Amino acid sequence: MAPLLGHHGTLISYRMNKSFITVAFLAITLCVTAQSGTNSPYSQYGFGTQAELANGISRGMNGLGIGYRSGTQVNILNPASYSAIDSLTFLFDAGMSAQITNFEENGKKINANNANFEYAVGGFRLMKHLGVSFGILPFTNVGYSYSSTSKIDDISATTFTNTYSGSGGLHQVFVGFGWELFKGLSIGVNGAYLWGKYEKSIVNSYSDTYVNTLSKYYTANITNYKVDFGVQTVLPLSKKNTLTIGATYGLQHKLGADPQCQIISRNSQTSVSDTATVVAKNGLELPAVISAGLMFNFNNKLKIGADYQLQQWSKVGFPDYKNDATTNTPTYTIKKDYFDDRHKVTVGGEYCKNANSRNFFDRIAFRMGASYATPYLNINGKDGPKEISVSAGLGIPIINVWNNRSTLNISGQWVRMDASNLITENTFRINVGITFNERWFMKWKVD
Fold first, then answer.
1. Residues 104, 111: Cα–Cα separation, whole Å
2. Are 76 and 190 in contact (CB under 8 A)?
3. Are 253 and 286 in contact (CB under 8 A)?
4. Considering 131, 137, 155, 175, which has the largest number of Cβ atoms within 10 A of its Cβ?
């Protein structure tokens, strides 16, 4: 950029650091689907398993963040926090994960592995008191494949096998704004474009070729919006200590999608198929999500907080296939007791001796967190899995000749999902993310 001549002969130039982050962000947002993989059989229900909507710092605290506020990090869990972004910097955060999951049922165990790109987000100060963020995130994931074989009855030797498989998920690209109304009070909003699809199937087969097979294929394509509002207030407790209280609200609304179920009855001898397709018009809906949290900040060294989240799934339904015994016709209608409300509590914290120190070890951040979530799925009339998880992580400063403000965020997380008489899942996940903190907007004066 050409230099500008300032008052009194001062030469001013705006140093726009043309680092590789710009190219990296464009490449990632254009090429990456932002879907975290899963092998969970529980992803066959509803929209699939819920993705961890958090970046590297929050993942180290097991998803804590409604009351988290920082000028050097992008906190996507509460858009009101964007107003705290430092005016001189451009922030970019990207991360990936690798996981191993152990599935156990009736004494049988099996492992599955995944490695996936997770998120890419950026943020900067747009103007005084107004911060902006943008990025790409996963929302839900569908991925499973298994089968079960049983005898038709105790007398016949004929067996039948049902093969269950599914893939897909939902993703979101968002833009958010955080505005500080006045000192100590900020509001914000995230607006997202939500898109994706899922494909699920139950394929039926018999050992006796004289028996007809019946298979069902469930599909849906979704393109809609998602909106979340946030608020944060900072209360001084003393000269060096503060308490931040935050809250968010996600809108409940229909997704305008028409999920369908295709039923195929096939005669194994003649290879003749009879196909019927039933559609649930505008049959998918997002629930309202209400969250509240607080975080104590002790002299910018120790941060301890807690979050509570309510997902009001009981107020939305989901398409359910039935065959009318009287008319022998298939139906695909909304089932209202498919879900229960999901309650989630998270506690955690972060400790950093001195984020501005020249000593490398003093700048390392230590993070921990734990969560408990109640079941929200109804599976065959019983509660689905509850979820317990814990995490620990480090924020390691990156120091080189170009930059000493960026951070490598590494965390490990253990997640257990279990329910009575159903599959138990134990997942160990490693999350790795990098937060680039670039001084793009700093002014330099030259005599």
1. 9
2. yes
3. yes
4. 131
What are 284-299's pLDDT values in tens digits? 999 999 999 999 999 9
**What's the rounded mean pLDDT across residues 135-144?**
93
Q: What does the alpha-carbon distance between residue 220 and residue 84 come to, in Å, rounded to a whole number?
A: 39
In terms of C-beta distances under 8 Å and separation of at least 24 residues, what long-range contacts does 146-155 make, across chains too? 146/41, 152/206
∠ CA 249-253-259, rounded to 5°? 135
Are the C-beta atoms of 216 and 200 separated by less than 8 Å?
no
Q: Any idea what the Cα angle at residue 336 is, between residues 332 and 341, rounded to 5°?
A: 135
Confidence band of 328 (pLDDT split at 50, 70, 90) = confident
pTM, two decimal places: 0.87
* Amino acid at the residue 134: F
pLDDT for residue 14 = 35
Report how far residue 333's alpha carbon sits from residue 335's, in angstroms, rounded to the nearest whole number.
Answer: 6
CA 216 – CA 331 distance, rounded (Å): 12
Residue 269, pLDDT score? 66
- The structure tokens 């997640």 sit at 415
Tokens standing for 272? 């003749």
Burial bucket for residue 58 (CB in 10 Å: 0-12, 13-18, 19+): buried
Cα radius of gyration (the chain): 25
Q: Which of 32-36, 87-91, 401-405 has the lowest mean pLDDT?
A: 32-36
> What secondary structure does DSSP assign to 193-222, as a single string?
EEEEEEEEEEEEEESSTTSPEEEEEEEEEE
Give the 3-state secondary structure of residue 83. helix
Looking up tokens 């965390």 gives 411
Helix (H), strand (E) at residue 234: strand 213-236
* Those residues with Cβ within 8 angstroms of residue 113's Cβ, 6 or more apart along the chain or in another chain: 98, 99, 100, 101
* Secondary structure (3-state) at 111: strand
Q: Is 237 exposed, middle or buried (0-12, 13-18, 19+ CB in 10 A)?
A: exposed
Say which residue the tokens 């209608």 belong to. 333
Question: What mean pLDDT do residues 70-86 have?
Answer: 93
Q: Is the pLDDT of residue 30 over 60?
A: no
**What is the per-residue pLDDT for 45?**
93
CA distances, 394 to each of 137, 245, 408 (Å): 22, 24, 8
**Over the stretch 408-418, which tens digit does the pLDDT of each residue have?**
999 999 999 99
Among 438, 405, 410, CA closest to 122: 438
Q: CA dist 14 to 92, 168, 441, Å?
A: 20, 45, 7
